[in-house]
Amino acid sequence: MSLLLDTDDPARLDPRDLLLSLAAMERLGAPAQAVMFQPFIEFAARQPARTVPTLIHQVAEAPLAWSGRLSAAALGEILASGFAGSLLDMRAVAVPALANAVGLAAVGEADLGREAIAALAAWSGHEPVPEAAGAVRAWLQAATQAAEPRLYVIRQAQTILDRADQ
Known about the structure:
By secondary structure, this protein is mainly α. The chain is 73% helix and 0% strand.
């Protein structure tokens, strides 16, 4: 994976290689995912102008699959790292994709929405995301009824809503 994604030259990074890396991690399963998820996020965050469109596409296409969730986590890292410009410019497609993932998790397994919640929380640190509020409220209701709710994610969801109401 590092041979595909580890470059300081944006021209050498082919966004299709992100998809190949995601597919390989998905195919290899949990052991590979455990080892490769953090480097994937770091590599994706280095070249946001090249990676963001592909990451958003993956969230939109497979919102609750492992690859979509990892892509949402990478988007959250890009937002948190201060290189958010290329992502914020794509708000019209990114926020709906993330909100859709949250909404689907609200009616399915709430825990599958945690990466999208984290990305939206990071986004709300730059600007409010009121268009995601409905999905976040539905997710919050489902998450608080879960057998073992993840309190840090619930706090992130509440932060999204608080910032949207300002």
